[in-house]
Amino acid sequence: MTSNPCPRASMAFEIVAIKEKSNWSKFKDNSFSLFNVIDSILDATHAKGDLFRSSRVLPLASVPPCNLQIEEIGGQDDSGSSCTSSFYKFFPPVHEASNLTDLKLLPSDGLEDTLAQDTFKEPIQHDSGSQTFGDGVLVAMDVSEDEEGGGEEEEEAGKDSARPTSRYEEHKWQRVERLIAEVREFGEEIVDFNELAGVYDFPIDKFQRLAIQAFLRGSSVVVSAPTSSGKTLIAEAAAVATVAKRRRLFYTTPLKALSNQKYREFRTTFGEHNVGLLTGDSVINKDAQILIMTTEILRNMMYQSIGMVSSGSKLFHVDVVVLDEVHYLSDISRGTVWEEIVIYCPKEVQLICLSATVANPDELAGWIEQIHGKTELVTSTKRPVPLEWHFSLKNSLWPLLDEKGTKINRKLSTAYLQPSTSKIDSYTDDRTRKNKFNRNEQRSTKIVGISKKTHLSKNDVTIIRRSQVPQIKDTLRHLMAKDMLPAIWFIFSRRGCDAAVQYLEDCMLLDECETSEVELELCRFRKQYPDAIREVAVKGLLQGVSAHHAGCLPLWKSFVEELFQRGLVKVVFATETLAAGINMPARTAVISSLSKRGESGRTLLSSNELLQMAGRAGRRGIDEVGHVVLIQTPYEGAEESCELLFAGLEPLVSQFTASYGMVLNLLAGTKITRATRKADKSKAYSAGRTLEEARKLVEQSFGNYVGSNVMLTAKEELGKIRNEVHLLSQQVTDDALHRKCQEQLLEAEYTEISSIQEELRAEKRLRTELRQQMELQRMAAWKSLLDEFETGQLPFICLQYKDSESVQRIVSAVYMGMLSSFYAPQDYRDSDIKGSKPNFGYMEGEGSSKPAYYVALGSDNSWYIFTEKWIKMIYKSGLPNSLTDGVALPRENLRQLLVKNESRWEKLVESEFGSVWSTEGSLETWSWSLNVPVLGSLSEDDEVKNWSQEYQFAVECYRKQRTRVARLKKELTNTKGFKEFKKVVDMVNYTKEKIERLEARSHRLTKRIVQIEPSGWKEFLQIGKVIQESGALDVNTHVMYPLGETASAIRGENELWLAMVLRNKVFLDLKPAQFAAVIGSLVSEGIKIRPWKANSYIYEPSSTVNNVVKILEEQRSSFLQIQDKYGVKIACGLDSQFSGMVEAWASGLTWRELMMDCAMDDGDLARLLRRTIDLLAQIPKLPDIDPEVQNNALVAANVMDRAPISELAG
Known about the structure:
Organism: Apostasia shenzhenica
Domain Helicase ATP-binding: 212-376
Strand order of the largest sheet: 15-14-16-13-17-18-12-19
Strand content: 5-15%
Radius of gyration: 35 Å
Distance between the termini: 29 Å
Region (Disordered): 144-168
Number of strands: 35
Structural class: alpha/beta
Domain Helicase C-terminal: 483-667
Number of helices: 38
Protein name: DEAD-box ATP-dependent RNA helicase ISE2, chloroplastic
CATH topology of the domain at 172-379: Rossmann fold
Shape: globular
CATH class of the domain at 172-379: Alpha Beta
């Protein structure tokens, strides 16, 4: 039987009376099979006890899938307001064929009719509101008015909804087209706020109205509002007005993925002919009235325009520029781009700057007004969907804040928590969900209240917090019980996200209908993009769980996003990159930790980062409230959560820095390749800006604007602080103390006190020496004992140290052995441990007095590297180093797990006797860490106290000396005049503390002044000197040489270095795939091998590619010397480690072949290939590049740009 396309009008079905928003959220704005849609409605209404007034539709299991678009005719709107009744239309897209062969309908008289025709006929309208086709089959039901429990108001609302106005029958794109047609017929004067608001079928928020009205007045606009509050609507309304007036708008985003998403959205609203896309390697309809692009693209377009004297032609005839996510201005690596756009943008262009909430939007608006023109600020702190904050413990989910929302919920205070072995049920309705969880995982500890007066040591606090850390299933169980799904669960590592999905492999979050829908979508996706399927994630996806991070292919991430938006994925474990702009809201956002590991170790989240992730919670028009869940961790509790939450927003901070592209484009004058061409004389090129003119532009940065307002005040305050510190310092010298004592005490009293003090200082120095000697003897005793455990069983040990906040940490662990048996010195990499190499002692031949480093796995599933100093106790019990036949010994097994662990090491504490380093364990080490007993279960009888006579003698000497010091202190306090002396000393100590506070304030002010000091110009001059010496531009005459001409047109990290490479004649003998491999070596920064992948490898580059890279390495060394000479610190990328992968892909290998046992994540390889394609796509457009090289670049880019990494695939 053949399916035929049919018009929408002939496929309309009206379904009525869905009262619960949560039910509607399951299928709103998505495509579903007819069976699933109607079945979901029946389930939802019957489950809630609502009367389903069109219940005579009886879908059968045999109904074939038929994609349906869903349009809401009345009832709930996007602003979240609700109606008593709602009407929805279901119809297939025009372009799809539909075949509803086995749908059975039960008319009101109780007789069954069967709809079994190949095509649909035009409907016949009935007075009752129902429709029949020519053969009498009923396909749309009328609405009865005798609903049980419904009052007159509900009946009237139902009547109104049953007769929607034409405004609601139209799609948004139809209303936009109608408005554009009216403007072109009656003139631009009719474009006002009411006309633009009429495009939408829901009320416009106040901040949106104010921003649109400011735009219509001709002002530039800065909008600062919470995430997901609807800022894009402002840009869309501006685009409607701009297109209606036959003008042009540029919409910029910081991410290619976000640009692609906005392109699809605007294309739906304005039509393909009105919208274009420009992302460097993707060019679609570049002359369209609405052009979506990445921010760097617009900056480069402005570079091209600022060199033109002829200002008669505006910047590509653009009238409006939208800068989305303008808070990226604070981004360290990319913030300069946003500032450059504002500085270079012609004043006649209106700017619409959309920002998340920040602390200083007034400064941003003031800066733009000063350098660009009239600018109005619109701010909003109100979220359309309010947030509720929760805190997850092992067996419960509590509100984070008190009833007023001003401070911590007292029940979450550490003083109210103590561990207990009792088991309780947190929620009564958990029983209904037990079939979805492994009962063995439902272990919990009970939270009980204890007196506030109970004194808890720092160690007690740590133990309590560790006892309350929930497993993922614990928190998920609470979310399900409170109907808080779907959720985005932020975990700050790829492995953590993948491990979380694997951990929930026995949890089914979907019903049978939803599982079938996912299976169907998976089949479609596999058929369309067979190489993009992430096989390891399929099982989790069928259970409603998925991971979303940079290690996944963009196509797969888009697929997960689509399923999540349709309600077919209930939990997404994602890294924080998901919070940046992508439209993927959820009911709940779960944040697994308040800190994350970075290049400099573990750092606390900023308040802006926390709120950015929290902003994903709450779906407008669907959820009454959004939920944010913070989770107890071993080191972070509810107190830290509240402290960060109430810390306040961080201000935008300028990151303006000069670059080669900036200097070349600002100073460029006559181009030497054009000087002799008569044809070019008609083009009016400037003679190049003078250095003074360039300086005025550079010093217009946002940072300099902020600095000009606060610099003077900060310097005045700093001067006062330094004067006060100078005066106070004179009061705490030894001479000053001596004079004050002489004034306050009798000479005899002061002489006696001074004599005892001198003796006391000498005895304290001796006590310190004896303590050090005792420590050395203790370490020597531990060392001889640990040597005995290098073979045989793995003993349990106790480590003790104070962290950076002087909190006492005690960790039970299992001892593995000396570090030298795990890491050979030649295999050690500096980057493995916080970027610096600790002084690991490899003891062979170095003498026993020098501390050695050892390795242990802690009960918290963290690896520790330490010296003997940090060992508190060694125990006789441990893990046996022998297992059943055929299984690796525990020591060897754990050694392999440590070697392949790629997590960064963090220094916890250091001393003259060595440091303690730590890194997170893996999923494989987790089961081993569970076998390490807690300290309370290890008895004193199990302790090993094999102390040497030397250590015991040192301990005895230290004790005697400590007693002697205590006796002298007592003797000092008993002297006459001691009370007066103590008052003088206390006053001096108070003054010293005051000096410390003032110096801390001075340090903060100095740091702030450095931030706001006029920036950019010094770097500008330094880069200019490098450009001059490299022969790219004569800074004095502004003559641009071919090298500079090429560099000025490149988009990249180091434009001058890339130009040097691309102009190299060594490329002339390369094939396209080899050329692509070399280009890949220039853009591989940040790409890593994942060593935990067993038996994995990467393709090696050909010998030809290796030889070319060696030649380039010599040139790179010379160029780096020039940079170092002038103090320029801009990276010059060149790493051939992954060139073989690029060469293989460019040679035609399939994705499946490339990724087979590959040591790289899919997303990393895709990102490397996309970067390579991006640079290759630029080369044919660059000036003064050999045509053969340009042709090879074009060929290679075309070959490489294929699924599953195609930028616009899907």
